[in-house]
Design goal:
It is built from two helices and five strands. The radius of gyration is 12 Å and the shape is globular. The chain starts with a strand and ends in a 6-residue tail after the last strand. The model has no long low-confidence stretch (mean pLDDT about 95).
Length: about 80
């Protein structure tokens, strides 16, 4: 079952600011959400309806909408950054 992936404008801006090698790894991870947004490395954030996927020193914060089969990327941040 395939999911559609959307990236919010703020997350796209954060993604574009990443260093090139990191940007490529994050891109692959975001595209992987299409196949399985609840993969083995995905963690649900406590007390939130968001999930995170760690890619090296970066976190992809996203939400999943089952009825629409949609994964929405909310933020791309350093591991030590604020968790949504």
């Amino acid at each position: 079952m395939s999911y559609r992936v959307e990236i919010l404008p703020a997350a796209l801006k954060e993604y574009r600011a990443l260093p090139e090698p990191d940007r490529e790894a994050v891109k692959r991870a975001i595209l992987g959400l299409e196949r399985n947004p609840r993969g083995i490395q995905v963690k649900k954030l406590k007390g939130r309806e968001y999930y995170r996927l760690r890619v090296g020193n970066w976190r992809i914060i996203f939400a999943i909408s089952e009825p629409q089969k949609l994964a929405t990327v909310i933020a791309v941040e350093r591991r030590t950054g604020t968790t949504y």
